[in-house]
Amino acid sequence: MATESTEFNRRRLLRGAIGAAAAAALPATLALPAGTATAVTAATTGTTATPPHPHPQPPSLWAEFKRNPQAHPHIPYIGRAGYRGGVTAFPRRRVVADIVKDYGALPDGSADAAPAINRALQDAGRRGGGTVFVPPGTYRIDDIIRIGHNNVVLRGAGSGRTTLHATRSLTDLIGPYGSRYGGDKSSWSWAGGLIWLCPSARWESLTDAIKAKAWPFEGWTGNRRDEWHTLTPLTVMAHQGDRTVTVQDTRHLHPGDRVLLQLADDTDHTLLRHMVGDLPGASAYTWSDKTKLTSYVPYEWPCRITAVDPRRHRVTLDRPLPLDTRPSWSPQLTTHITPLTESGVESLTLEMTETPQSPHLTDKGYNGVALQCAWDCWVDDVHVRHVDNGFLLVAAKACTLRRTRVSGRGSHHPYACREGSHDNLVEDFTIDQRTVPAPAGTQLHGINVEGLSSYNVWSRGQMAMGTFDTHRGLPFANVRTDITVTNDGAHGGDASAGPLYGARFTHWNITVTNHRAGCIKLDEIAPYSATVGISEVSEFGQTDKPDFTGPLHTRLESYGRPESLTPRNLYEAQRALRR
What we know:
The chain is of the alpha/beta class.
């Protein structure tokens, strides 16, 4: 163990020295554009001079990142986030059913179309997949629309032409859903959807538990987190950014296998401390009483095996390791529940019967689209209206939400990403201004991430309301980039859920229309993170104190000048590095 610790510290010192050298070689902030000094001199002498238009210049952080993209101390590598590692084209599966022609659904809203849609989805799944087409029109749905089979797509004629009108809530359809942490909260405030993508067996176990009031865990290893077995322990420490690990036994491992990397914590909570960048101040933080946070451990990271070398006992993974794998954390590759894969929802609007937004944490479950235990799935050109919660990623892996929109009477979580969700991409998204004033006692968050979720991306967004809701539960290594936001929401999170931020959060090219700092300017609140190219902002409304004492080692660059930033979009720039 002493050798492991010495090697770990040596590598950290080396990385620190490299970073310090890079910082010394590069400016701490963008240089003034050529001609600025001349313009200032002219102004002081009373003459008139027009400075040239400033040319975008790359910040020093980007130059540093390009030298060390897999394991930069401040910026996560998210160039493979999204469906199949971020591919831009979704599969066009052949149409196997038309719900009007083949199943008798009525496009005038006069009768419940949910039975027809669900029969068509089930039949498509049993036949191996395909697209269920919903022609133009408005379809009343009095039940949950479920996608539980692989390779199944629900497709409308466009979000402006096909509407599903939902009349009932998840409380109506399944029953009340309490919190496994006690109290009188409704878990429909953050779980479930009236379009719900989840493997059939997992969905049935979840809803059976809810009906029995045995409030479940919702993630990769079942209601009690016991539905897995060990495939092999890891035997040699690997480091964040590595793609190859050394294992004890390769007999049960094959290229293409989907497995779970599990990391347990130790009594000193060094795993949780590692998630905040091994920040010195994290050793003084009280971890032991954060019972909601510690319930999320072991950390569970789904990954795919790309190569197996039995002779050397080595396994190569499809993505860089999100964390180190120290022996004290009992690193192992395990099984997990069988996920839903290669399924999607496209080209429709899901609109609820308009009801007032419920008081905070008492949502009835007028929820939009949920992807749960889903891997390599997608949502494209989908608009939800009058929802309690819009789009939910719950134990989701490598899914893409593209061209999605939340509008109507206002929502609690327009977007939520929780319960160990990793490597997801939300791009070209919109949150519209609410159409009615917020009722007293309600809460608005925005784009949410929590529950040890990591390496998720929100890109190219327009937010007329809400905020960057980092909801405790120690999420880490997440990116928001190329977003315009009216920053008027608030983050949430129980005190027992621990810190707001882990390491390597990055906010990159963010225009804040109302110049509010909270939840967006990270340099005084998040450890080993980066705020690059945001509008000039000031503190008002919800103001946070850092969870950790001492220096946070967080970077601020191009402050007040998002318009001059290059690259404009951190996710797209990282993808370009791959090419």
